[in-house]
TrEMBL record:
Signal peptide: none annotated. This is Thermonuclease family protein. Gene3D superfamilies: 2.40.50.90. It holds the Pfam family SNase. Keywords: Plasmid. InterPro entries: SNase_OB-fold_sf (IPR035437), Staphylococal_nuclease_OB-fold (IPR016071). SUPFAM superfamilies: Staphylococcal nuclease. Residues 58-191 form the TNase-like domain.
């Protein structure tokens, strides 16, 4: 809230108080109600203008903020801005990928997505834009309640560190958290699994071989 807004609200409060004292005179009661209504509308307009200016400034700085819908284990969609964001610095299980706990398969992508929902549902998410992809997806560092979502996903064992792209991120911290999750056998580290990038490559090779067979 800027100085102009504070000044307007302060003046409005004083005016309402003075008018309320004058209200003892029934002859100007109707006028008082009219003035109060106008003051209230002016205050709301000032607040709306201030919020709009704040939102515009945030967008200019590449900051997204608000409620999100989880698209997958590392992709969020801001509801108000209708912008898709990929969380930078992490690698997660791909759709359909399985991990194996003592030989028993479990859907690691589904579990990671459910975890992401539990961390963001109904909460205010903030993302700092790092890159805009050709398909309009924003690559960003995101947080909830002051916590780095990527770091939380790594320490929970639902994500691995992805340092292949050189973004301004605390990769050393991320790697330390991954080592901690591995030692504690948390999440993926409780099971045997294929690294997501290797799994995607194997799926691609399988599909390519199937196309050759059909031909």
């Amino acid at each position: 809230m800027n100085f102009k807004t504070v000044s307007l609200i302060g003046i409005a409060a004083v005016a309402v108080y003075v008018l309320s004292q004058m209200g003892k005179d029934d002859r100007i009661g109707a006028q008082i109600d009219t003035y109060k209504d106008r003051i209230g509308k002016a205050t709301l307009a000032a607040n709306a203008q201030d919020e709009s200016q704040t939102s515009q400034a945030a967008e200019e700085q590449g900051i997204l903020q608000g409620n999100v819908r989880v698209m997958d284990a590392r992709t969020l969609q801001f509801l108000k801005a209708d912008v898709k964001v990929e969380i930078a610095g992490i690698e997660v299980c791909d759709k359909g990928q399985l991990a194996y706990f003592n030989g028993t398969p479990w859907p690691c992508e589904t579990m990671a997505t459910a975890w992401m929902v539990s961390q963001t549902l109904g909460r205010d998410v903030q993302c700092q834009t790092l890159e805009r992809r050709y398909d309009a997806v924003v690559i960003a560092r995101c947080g909830v309640g002051g916590a780095d979502i990527a770091a939380e996903a790594i320490v929970a064992g639902h994500a691995l560190v992805d340092s292949k792209r050189n973004y301004r991120l605390p990769y050393d911290t991320y790697q330390s958290l991954e080592n901690q999750a591995r030692q504690n056998r948390t999440g993926l580290w409780s099971s045997s699994f294929t690294r997501p990038d290797e799994w995607r490559q194997s799926v691609y090779e399988d599909r390519k071989s199937q196309v050759r067979i059909v031909e």
